[in-house]
Structure formats: structure tokens, C-alpha cells
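Propose amino acids for all 77 sites.
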């Protein structure tokens, strides 16, 4: 089942390999501003996205242990 939530443009999966652990990552690209100082920052929308991603992982993503949000918006400062 594909992950769907408002403000999501792309979802990909990756693996981070460290000296002591390998971590599976679900990377979500969003049109939301993630900088809390930006005037368009929407905490409620981000919380919903995080809640949706966690719910998706609980039922579908198996070994994924980390969620990464990436903003596709410019002007993050």
C-alpha cells in the first residue's frame, strides 16, 4: 500500500549504514516549510504528516525505523 497524506510529493526508502547499526529510513518530501521561524510554518499540518507516517510504518513498512521529512520549498530561512 502506498503512503498518502496531504502535502506529500514523494516518498522513498533508503538505508543508512553506520559503524554499529544499519537503519532503514522512510524519506518524505513535502511542500510544507519545516523551519519553525518561517511565516508559513504550519505545526498542525506537520504533526498530521508525522502521525500519518507513523501509522503507515506501524502497519506496512516492516524494518523501517526512522522517518525523514524533507521540504521541497525554497526560502527555509
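Proposal:
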Amino acid at each position: 500500500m502506498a503512503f498518502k497524506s496531504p502535502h506529500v510529493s514523494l516518498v522513498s526508502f533508503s538505508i543508512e549504514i553506520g559503524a554499529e547499526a544499519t537503519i532503514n529510513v522512510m524519506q518524505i518530501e513535502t511542500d510544507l516549510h519545516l523551519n519553525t521561524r518561517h511565516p508559513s510554518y504550519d505545526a498542525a499540518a506537520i504533526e498530521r504528516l508525522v502521525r500519518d507516517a507513523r501509522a503507515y510504518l506501524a502497519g506496512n513498512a516492516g524494518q523501517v525505523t526512522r522517518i525523514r521529512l524533507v521540504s521541497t520549498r525554497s526560502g527555509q530561512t
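Residues 8-71 form a domain with the Alpha-Beta Plaits fold (CATH 3.30.70). The beta strands are 8-17, 22-30, 64-71.
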